[in-house]
Amino acid sequence: MPDHIDRPNRESPAAATAGDWSGETLGAALGRAAEWTIDYRARVEQRPVFPDLAPGDVRRALAEAPPRTPEPFERVLADFDEHIVSGLTHWNHPGFLAYFSSSTRAPSIVAELLVAAVGVNAMLWRTSPAATEVERTAVDWLRQAVGLPDTFSGLIFDTASTSTFTALLAARERAGVAVRDDGLPGGPALAVYTSEQSHSSVEKSAIAAGLGRRSVRRIETDAAFRMRPEALEAAIADDLERGIRPAMVCATIGTTSTASIDPVPALAAIAKRTGVWLHVDAAYAGPAAMVSEQRPLFRGWEAADSIVLNPHKWLGTSLDCSVLLYRDAAPFRASLALTPIYLESGNDETNLMDIGLALGRRFRGLKLWVLFRCAGTDGLAATMRRHIAMAEAAAARLVEGGVFELAAPVSFSTVCFRAAREGDPAGEERWNRKILARVNAAGRSFLSHTELDGRYTVRLSVGSVHTEERHLDEALEALHRAAADLSPGEPG
Ligand SMILES: *Cc1c(COP(=O)(O)O)cnc(C)c1O
User: Fold this and answer.
1) Does residue 254 line the site of ligand 1, with CB under 6 A?
2) Which of 48, 170, 173, 354 is the Cys-Cys partner for 337 at CB 3.0 to 4.6 Å?
């Protein structure tokens, strides 16, 4: 054990009793953590993508009670490596192709450290002026990079779920229900419109906003899993006739199963005609508007009242970083702003705590700002362009041989497919479940699944800076081998 770890903290007795470190000890620990980080990233590919563990295995390896006295960081780091990292699913593994794959770009790791180093709380402008202004700047850079007009501004939340929930509160306010003062009971019933392919966070937002699940109209989609505008129009008309007030239309660019794209221009026209708030959920795909040839897929989103994009997905900031853009701050402030006397500061226009539920706010803007500075918009766009090309090439090769078929059009960097068994739905599902389980158990690739048209579907999504063509080759080979080895017939 290096002697500096145990050396008493001479320069600051107060810090020593609090278990803090001297500058020298901190430097040594940061150095060890930096070495560990570099090594982890260099060799993560040698680890299985996800661990072979049962619930409780990790907890059994950890002490049952906290230590009463400080332990040396070396020992903590060793336990982290041995018992914790071995129990992680490695999102930064290049074979991670599940869900919406994401990874941490190196500059974001360093930015996360700097956020912790300054440890500020950006609740009010004056509790850390630069934190608020960096956040505004980073959000505006993102707005410019994705080609939205400067009528949009915004801020950063933890997740898209929070962003969408906050937008729904603003939409509820604008629907003219005085919930802020009177609460929900007694007001008119409200409705939210979103496609049957939209993310569960839309429904969850309706639950949390007190509208209830039954207020959510899951509008039917077409053969390419896009919301049908005429079905939306009919649902709104039906509600209006029954005295139900439409509160929000939530369109999606990049739905969760297939990354399909709702026809936003048509939906925006309906929202405008009926005076309903339009929210666009582009949590995954939004950053791809930085890729010039993808930009046309975002047509119409500039008509939205609010838009959510998650830099912590495809852009590669560390979790968490979700950007909410809006056209008008007034309904957001009207829904939640509340300043107790002890927080009055005279800069109320610039206090980000007024938008959203949380008071304390992390300095997330720094992660996005550092990432833009260190990667550049061309660099960020190039990565996404490469991912899209890799997904398209993988889809083309996947269907060669006739075993696998695409279950949806390839959209952005997401491919939905299955080994098809016409006329044998039960056998088909069994076969695909077995194929996916076999491929994932090998620990080299990790894919996920969904259901489309009532059929079990395998999903592959490219979104990690670590993923190269050879990782997709490996996944495709494993899929074809599993399909050949496993029979659709027998259960198990
Ligand atoms: C990932 C995703 C969400 C949820 O994101 P969180 O940040 O985890 O809340 C919502 N909508 C879409 C389209 C997504 O891809």
Assistant:
1) yes
2) 354
